Amino acid sequence: MTAPSRAAAVVLAAGLGTRFGETPKLIAPLGARPVLQHVLDTLHEAGISPIVVVLGHASADVEARIAWRDEVRVMNQHPERGVLRSVLLGLRRLDQMWSVPERTLIVLGDQPRLGAHQLASILASAVDEEKPFVVPRYVDGQPGNPVLLEATGRVVAQQFVVHTRKDTDRGLSQLFNKFPDAVRFVDVPGVNPDVDTRDELAALDAS
After folding, report:
1. What confidence score (pLDDT) does residue 15 get?
2. Cβ-based neighbours of 199, under 8 Å, separated by 6 or more
3. What per-residue confidence (pLDDT) applies to 6?
4. Strands across the sheet with 147-149, in order?
5. How far is CA 118 from CA 36, 50, 95, 139, 193, in A?
6. How far apart are CA 198 and CA 202, in angstroms?
7. In the chain, is it the N or the C terminus that has fewer CB atoms within a 10 Å radius of its CB?
């Protein structure tokens, strides 16, 4: 019998990726798989379900290159308006589903070195609705992604996004800065770098 999922996930994969060049960043190869495929495979390995993927820029190319399983895809028609729009679209799609775990991971599609053991460290944190935002800290001591929203944190996050009219490309970090007492930091092993440029991808491929 399959154990119930400990969290749902919203994967942000709609960005323009302007620093990367002509090839859509999320389908650029890292080893034998596209960048986004690494992220989705890790979520499945960790038993995360359901998974909502918010697509936008170059969505047709991404759709064609990814080996999809049971991920639910949502389209962000205006990715140029910033990442918070994708967060809201993904959370709203989760709200429409029949049964969803109370905890929700917000995952970046351009972090192909994310490991199942790192997800396990984040999910090992006890549920605390008084501090409903869980933020990982990797070995460099800096806060990073993916972040975890408890049930109340998910509601607050949606309300925050709806009422945010600027800085829509800064992500949820501005929410955490606004409510620092609601944030818990969890130490996570290793690193989990973003891929923004071809040089960064090449460095990951060589490591």
Report:
1. 82
2. none
3. 83
4. 72-75, 51-55, 8-13, 104-108, 147-149, 133-137, 183-187
5. 17, 19, 26, 12, 13
6. 6
7. N
List CB contacts of 33: < 8 A, sequence separation 6 or more: 41
* Nearest Cα to Cα of residue 122 among 147, 91, 86: 147
What tokens does 112 get?
């192909």
Non-local (6+) Cβ contacts of 69 within 8 A are 40, 44
Question: Torsions phi, psi of 108, nearest 5?
Answer: -85, 135
* Per-residue pLDDT at 200: 87
**Model confidence pTM above 0.85:** yes
Tell whether the torsion through CA atoms of 64, 66, 70 and 75 is positive or negative: negative
pLDDT digits (tens, 9 = 90+) for 68-102: 999 999 999 998 888 999 999 999 999 999 889 99
- Quote the pLDDT of residue 2: 43
The SS3 call for residue 206 is helix
pLDDT < 70 regions, the chain: 1-5, 16-22, 167
- Other CB atoms closer than 10 Å to residue 38's CB: what's the count? 21
Among the listed residues 39, 23, 79, 37, the one whose alpha carbon sits nearest the alpha carbon of residue 55 = 79
